[in-house]
Specification:
Elements (H helix, E strand, L loop, with lengths): L7 H27 L10 E13 L5 E8 L2 E4 L4 E7 L5 E6 L5 E5 L3 E7 L4 E7 L12 E6 L1
Parallel strand pairs: 1-4, 3-9
Antiparallel strand pairs: 1-2, 4-7, 5-6, 5-8, 8-9
The structure holds copper (II) ion.
The site of copper (II) ion has 7 residues, from loops.
Length: 148
């Protein structure tokens, strides 16, 4: 029968090796949870909007209408990936831009326009339809994106 004989110095060396690995693992684990430096495969938050229209006739038979983004205000988190899906319901085409960004596009009837964006600065950004920006142009077709 063979006996495994360990010297006292070997036992001390093994003990400290295990201790160091243990502390290192614990530190790595804690660090990972305290300071996430990478976020892999984070799914964007999807926010859906539609183009809507108010339409009516005045007492003297005049037709008046107003195009709108709906909802008119959305709130998104700063530094979070966001996907805006804007569905064209009323109105043939709404060319738009988002103030303070280089985002622009057109929402067409029956189609969905997708905008992927991450706002890195807090503030309120206006989503403006260039055709219907004011009341005189059958608007105001402006939505407010609040980044907090
Ligand atoms: Cu419009």
């Amino acid at each position: 029968m063979k006996l495994l004989v360990l010297k006292k110095s070997s036992i001390i060396a093994i003990f400290f090796t295990i201790l160091i690995i243990g502390i290192g693992s614990l530190w790595a684990y804690k660090t990972q949870h305290s300071y996430p430096t990478v976020s892999l495969g984070e799914a964007p938050e999807t926010i859906e909007l539609v183009t809507g229209e108010f339409k009516t006739k005045t007492a003297d038979g005049k037709e008046i209408e107003s195009y709108r983004w709906d909802p008119g205000t959305i709130v998104v988190e700063k530094d979070k990936k966001v996907q805006l899906v804007i569905h064209g319901v009323n109105g043939d085409a709404h060319p738009f831009h988002i103030e303070g960004t280089n985002i622009k596009g057109t929402v067409k009837k029956g189609k969905a326009t997708v905008v992927n964006v991450t706002f890195t600065k807090e503030g309120t950004y206006r989503l403006i339809c260039e055709t219907h920006a004011t009341m005189e142009n059958n608007g105001p077709m402006i939505a407010y994106i609040v980044v907090d």
